[in-house]
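To the structural biology subgroup,

Please find below the input and predicted structure for Nuclear protein SET, which we are adding to the shared reference set this quarter. The sequence is reproduced verbatim from the submission form. If anyone notices a discrepancy with their own records, reply to this email rather than editing the shared folder directly, so we keep one authoritative version.
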Amino acid sequence: MFIQPRGHSSASEAGEDRLVVCDCETLGLCVRALAPFAAGEVLDRFNGEVSADLLQHSLQVSPGMHVHDTRFVGYLSHGCEPNCRLDMERFELVALSDIDAGEVLAIDYAATEDVLYRQFACHCAAQHCRAWITGRAENANEEGRRFLDGQAKPLKS
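Predicted structure (tokenized):
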């Protein structure tokens, strides 16, 4: 099943020439803004193939259903204090804060995903970084529990 954003016949009109997928040495594939965006602005209206397949670059659109083969949003980075959010009703990428040209776009994966394709350690450096990223409906797996145990700070006496 292929989806289109509501009220739009051209799927990529919002992100065309304003976003780019990059291969960054520290992040891997990511999306950068090519122009500045104001908080609340729509950066992209996305579409893609919807199926029950949970893939590395898919996004959950409803319980058990995921969109993949999107132009940009499947390559968004994770941030515990993200600069963007996904509106899965309108199929839009929306700026949460002002974004400068060249800035890497990040969403909180737990905001849309019940279960991640793969859990991972986070190094986003946000003040409230969760350190280990899971979907909103799953607990840290064994690797995550070990990682988090190693990150535990000693109790103050």
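Summary notes: Residues 142-151 form the longest helix (10 residues). The radius of gyration is 16 Å.

Regards,
Lab coordination
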